[in-house]
Amino acid sequence: MKKIVIILSVLLLVGCGNKVSDKMPSDAFIDMKLEDIEVFQEMYVTDLVRDTNVKIEDYKLDTDTIGEKDIEFYYTYKGKKYVYETTIQVVDTVDPKIFGSSSKTVKVVNPWNLLMKYIQQQDIVMKLFIYMKQKVYLKLKIPLKEMKMNL
Description:
Oligomer: single chain
Largest sheet: 4 strands, mixed
Radius of gyration: 44 Å
Number of helices: 2
Distance between the termini: 127 Å
Strand content: 15-25%
Structural class: alpha+beta
Low-confidence stretches: none
Shape: rod-shaped
């Protein structure tokens, strides 16, 4: 019975030794290039690493929102698993683009020209009306001097 208890205790202690540590071993290194990352840029954890002697578990970073982001990733060194935490900055430095025609033409009209055009059109309508009225009077054989211009 003592042997079983001892074996179970040893297995339990060995099993608890597989915890992920956040303390980097003294002979391990990760040289990060912490530059600003452009928003919507496809970026992986390994893209941020300049040099290392550890095996990094790579994944795609979320760069959909602008601002400071805390990231963490796991790495393995000499068979043990560790976690590394850092901060990245997602920025938007690209100028906005406007699609479509490069130029638009806007016709500027002088309001006095519009008024004169309107008056001319009205004058033509009046002349036509007078002409039509004269024709009617002529057909009815009414002398032109009796034609009244009540407009």
